[in-house]
Amino acid sequence: MEPAGFFRRIFSLMYDTLFVMAIIISLSLLLNVMNGGYLEPGTVLSKLQLTMSILSGPLFYCYFWMKNEGQTLGMQAWKIKLVTCEGKSLDFKTSVTRCLLSSISFLLIGLGYFWIIVDPKKRSWSGIYSNTKILKIKKLA
C-alpha cells in the first residue's frame, strides 16, 4: 500500500479534532450539570475537567488505533490507516509514543507534520520516531 499524503492526513486530523472537541464539551457539560452550574477554579471538579480535557485526545487516538485496526473515525472517512513499519497493528506503548510525539510536533508550529511534504516516504516526525506509517487503503468496489 502507498503512503498517505499530507492533505489526506491533515483533513483526517481535522475531522478527528471535531470528535475530540465534542467529547470534551459533552464531558464538561456533564460536570457542570453535576455541579449545578459553573465550575469554580481550583475545585476538584475543575481539576477533573482539566484532566479530562488533556486526556480526551490521546485516549481517543490510542483507543481507535489499537481497537479499530489502526483507524480513527477521520482516518476511516479519508481511507487511511496507521500501522507499524512492519505492517502490524499498534500496541499501547507505540500508540502513546506516537500521541506524545504528535503533540510535540503540533506545539512546534506543526513542523513535524510539514515534514511529510519533504520526506520521500511521506513520514511525519511522530511516524519516524514511533516506527509507524500511515497508508492509503484501497476503496471497496
Biggest pleated sheet = 2 strands, antiparallel
Query: What value does the Rg take, in angstroms?
Result: 17 Å
Helix fraction by DSSP (H/I, runs of at least 4)? 55-70%
The pLDDT mean sits at: 93
Class from secondary-structure proportions: mainly alpha
Number of distinct beta strands: 2
Total helical segments: 6
Strand order of the largest sheet: 1-2
Spell out the helices and strands N to C.
HHHEHHHE
Q: What attributes does this structure have?
A:
6 helices; 141 residues; mainly alpha
Give structural notes:
The chain has a two-stranded antiparallel sheet. The chain has helices at 6-35, 44-67, 73-77, 92-107, 111-118, 125-130; strands at 80-84, 132-136. By secondary structure, the chain is mostly helical. The chain is built from six helices and two strands. The longest helix has 30 residues, at 6-35. The mean pLDDT is 93.
Furnish the topology, listing elements before pairings.
Blueprint: H1 6-35, H2 44-67, H3 73-77, E1 80-84, H4 92-107, H5 111-118, H6 125-130, E2 132-136
In short:
The chain is 63% helix and 7% strand. It has a two-stranded antiparallel ribbon with strand order 1-2. It has six helices and two strands; from the N terminus they run αααβαααβ.
